[in-house]
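Consortium newsletter contribution from the modelling node. Members have asked for a concrete example of what our holo predictions look like. Here is one, prepared for the dTDP-4-keto-6-deoxyglucose complex that several groups have been discussing at recent meetings.
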Amino acid sequence: MIGEILTFPVHGDKNGSLVALEKGADFPFEIKRVYYIWGTTPTYVRGHHAHKNLEQVVVCTSGSCDFILDDGTKRETYRLDSPTKGLHIKNNVWREFTNFSPGCVVMVLASEHYNEADYIRDYDEFLRSKGLT
Ligand code: T46
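And here is the predicted structure:
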């Protein structure tokens, strides 16, 4: 698999649920940045890039969407539809995401600060960076 689905432990009862994410057993890296995306157009495809040095865990805290991951040789689609599931994406993976449900909120936990120079936004450059062309 290109990405890994993490299943978070849930605390709670009939009155509500809570997920806590801390570096260690339940979470793979130290979080330096959090951002979230909402108000998405259902069929619009976001992303279209890879990162040179960035790990991220993506959580659909409300609603659902599809993440398409591409390692240059194959593409895999991951459905995110629960606040208890996180998609762990490592370096050098091309990502696109779409198929947003009404009310979808995508929260992303990132291992590094925002750096536009870390983005590879051209697919051919992505393949070259992996030695595939
Ligand atoms: C990713 C997917 C899942 C910032 O100023 N700071 C930030 O931390 C981020 C992430 C973005 N921006 C600015 C840069 C653009 O002007 O916000 C604007 C939208 O960013 P972008 O077009 O890169 O958004 P997406 O949804 O295509 O991709 C984002 C992340 O950029 C990316 O790392 O993996 O979400």
